[in-house]
Structure formats: structure tokens, C-alpha cells
Design brief:
290 residues; alpha/beta; two-stranded antiparallel ribbon; 11 strands; PM/HMP-P_kinase-1; ATP-binding; nucleotide-binding
Length: 290
């Protein structure tokens, strides 16, 4: 079978597992050729590890894309994450126009906010630009705070009810994307997960795992990468969501049990063999030790 290829447009942090340092290994483990376009290079992520170095790569991105275009490259998916400025959002929007074909899945993780607030690096101008980019996407993966900013609505914390969550899914889909996966969904204290809408079928599905208390860096990138891996390996949206929820939850649980500093990211690496098995990438007679 032809190997699928994606372009991942994210930042890269040298330490603290997130963005490209989780996107690349997860998608590669899923058998997908992964080309990367860094939007910025940081010494660490920005979550409590002191003042990090930051190298903005905005000026390189158009030439980077032009070189790819000169090679006549094509991609089965374009996957965008953290973007460092409104200008970068415009550049990525142009890249989508240049590389999209009828067979390309455009996935946008609108990294803007969490816990009811915009990230320190995000401005209202960026929030508006991200809304424009989401309109071009086939699939968006916001958390509930990002969904509120995209819709211009007030954020409130859960527990939620199904009517509210399903209303948010439909309003986000009305912006343009045919697939919407909303993260951070919970109806009761013991379970946390995601809700998804396929506009073509009108079907709404849910995926949950046991809630593990605490905030862990990089889990959104892990979830998004695992979700995309499932979809490109021909899983249904429901099954890809559950794969991503289980993989993310397992990574958090493994990290909590080891007592690892939460700032350092989660141990997704030890879960990759099981993840590959769930994707059907091992021979039938091979079984990963549980």
C-alpha cells in the first residue's frame, strides 16, 4: 500500500514533550510519513519551566512552502497546531490553498486558550484569524475554551449536559468544518473525554476515559496526533476518538504513577507499541505485553 504523508505545521520545544516532539513520533509510529514545518523553535515549552529561548520562524515559512511546492509534493493531510502570530495564521491559510487537493484532510487544532482564558501569546487578532483558518478546515479539534472564543460566546466550566455540547458542535460545524471534535467534555466527575460530530451523517459520538486529576502539558498534541493517526488508518471518527482518548489517558496515568514532574510532559512513548497494535500495524500472531 502507498504510504500516507502529512505535513505538520507546529512549533518545536527542545524540552517538555509537546508540539512536534510528540506529533512526529506518534504519527511515524502509525506508519505515516510526517513532514514538518516548524513555526518557532523554543528551548522548552512555556508552562512553568522558566524563561525559554524563542526563535520565530515566520520569515522562513513562505520560502519553506515554496521549496516544497517546487518538489511537487502532495499530502494526505495538513495538520496545524500552535501558531505564533496573526501573520503565521495568514501564511498557513495560503499554504492550505496551495497544497489542498480533493483528497487532502485539513486538520486545525486552534491552539488559543484553556481554562477560560487566552494564552499569554495569543491576541484577540489571532483569535479572529484562527476562526478564519477553521472555516477552511475539514476537521477542527478545539477544547471548550477555544470553542467559546471561536464562537464569540462566554465560556463556562462543566459539568456539561448533552444539549449544550451538541449545540456547540453544530455551531462550530456551521463555520465550515465537516468534522468537529471537542475536547475536555465531561458530564460527571469520574469521566473525561471528547465529543465528535460528522456533519455529513449528522452523527454525534462520544469517547471517555477515567478522569485523572491534574494538568499535564502536551496532552492536546498527543490527542490530536493519535486522532489523526486513527483517521488516516481508516478508522471511523468514533473509533479514532476512543483510540486518542485511551492513548492520552494511558500516557497521563503512566506519568502520574511514576511521580514525574508534570511540567516535563507525559510518558506517551511507553504506550506506542499498544497504540500500534490498536491500529492493526502488527502481524496477527504478534501481541504486545499488557
Amino acid at each position: 500500500m502507498r504510504q500516507k504523508r502529512i505535513a505538520a505545521i507546529h512549533d518545536i520545544s527542545g524540552f517538555g514533550k509537546c508540539s512536534l516532539t510528540v506529533v512526529l513520533p506518534i504519527l511515524s509510529a502509525a506508519g505515516i510519513e510526517t513532514s514538518v514545518m516548524p513555526t518557532a523553535v523554543l528551548s522548552t515549552h512555556t508552562g512553568g519551566l522558566g524563561k525559554c529561548t524563542y526563535r520565530d520562524l515566520t520569515e522562513d515559512m513562505r520560502d519553506y512552502a515554496a521549496h516544497w511546492k517546487s518538489l511537487n509534493l502532495s499530502f494526505d493531510a495538513l495538520y496545524t497546531g500552535f501558531l505564533g502570530s496573526a501573520e503565521q495564521i495568514g501564511i498557513v491559510s495560503d499554504i492550505v490553498d496551495d497544497f489542498r487537493t480533493s483528497d487532502t484532510l485539513v486538520m486545525v487544532d486552534p491552539v488559543l486558550a484553556d481554562n477560560g482564558k487566552l494564552y499569554a501569546t495569543c491576541t484577540p487578532e489571532m483569535a479572529h484569524g484562527m476562526k478564519t483558518l477553521c472555516k477552511k478546515a475539514d476537521l477542527i479539534v478545539p477544547n471548550l475554551t477555544e470553542a467559546a472564543f471561536l464562537l464569540g460566546e462566554e465560556f463556562y466550566d462543566g459539568p456539561y449536559d448533552r444539549a449544550y455540547i451538541e449545540g456547540v458542535l453544530h455551531r462550530l460545524s456551521d463555520m465550515g468544518p465537516r468534522l468537529v471534535v471537542l475536547t475536555g467534555v465531561w458530564f460527571s466527575p469520574g469521566l473525561l473525554g471528547a465529543a465528535g460530530l460528522d456533519r455529513d451523517t449528522g452523527r454525534i459520538t462520544y469517547a471517555f476515559s477515567p478522569r485523572i486529576e491534574g494538568a499535564y502539558h502536551g496532552t492536546g498534541d498527543i490527542f490530536g496526533s493519535a486522532l489523526l493517526a486513527g483517521l488516516l488508518n481508516e478508522m471511523s471518527l468514533r473509533d479514532a476518538m476512543q483510540l486518542a482518548v485511551d492513548f492520552t489517558c494511558g500516557s497521563i496515568r503512566r506519568t502520574r504513577e511514576a511521580g514525574t514532574d508534570r511540567r516535563f510532559g507525559v510518558n506517551f512513548e511507553a504506550g506506542l507499541p499498544r497504540f500500534m497494535e490498536e491500529l492493526g500495524l502488527f502481524p496477527v500472531n504478534y501481541r504486545v505485553a499488557r
